[in-house]
Amino acid sequence: MSEVESEHWSARHGKSIIFVILTLIAVGVYLAFTIPISVFPQTNFPRIVIGIDNGVAPIDQMLVTVTKPIEETVRSVQGIQKVQSITSRGSAEVDLFFAWGVDMFRTLEMVNAALARVQSTLPPNAKITSNRLTFAAFPILGYSLTSDTVSQIQLWEMATYDIKPLLNRLVGVGTIVIQGDPPPQRARRESLSRNSDRAHAKR
């Protein structure tokens, strides 16, 4: 066997291999400095999330007075394929699914128009938000406060005045939202009690 035939193929094509390697390195360096980088890339998911906050209303009441009316209204939006909902005490979430390729900005406008039509039939304290599904649409962490001995008002005050300020001091925390408002009856009772005390004092 001759010396030329015994050479490895990499030795015979050494210049071509070096050229390919250098080309790949150059392309990699170019792309590293030109490709946009994002922690949460922009992805146009065909989904809209509707969030409803109605204080501390019971689940059965939320289902009848909030979740069902919203589901029936948004089903009229053009292009909708599926509607799913999760109802809990004082809050509800309605997920709308559409086909890929739908203009989600235009669809969000139609959803907001449908929600505006049904708003007057919902409880007056109900707060509605609607957003396209993105990587930043949901909170990263969620906590729920429950107790068999502490009232809903005390839990709300604890979350608002004790826990929320502590979490706001943590590095990297963006926005903290307290879901569920305290029942207005307490404020009314306190107001009536103070007015009654003042009346007795004047006497």
Structural summary, described in words:
It is a single chain. With 203 residues, the chain is an alpha+beta fold. It has three domains: 3-34; 47-132, Multidrug efflux transporter AcrB pore domain (Alpha-Beta Plaits); 139-195, no CATH class. The protein is 47% helix and 15% strand. It has helices spanning 3-6, 9-12, 14-34, 59-74, 104-118, 152-168, 184-202, and strands at residues 47-53, 80-88, 91-98, 127-132. Strands 2-3-1-4 form a four-stranded antiparallel sheet, covered by helices on one side. Strand 2 (80-88) and strand 3 (91-98) form a beta hairpin. The protein starts with a helix and ends with a helix. 13% of the residues are buried. The model is unreliable at 185-195 and 197-202 (pLDDT under 50).
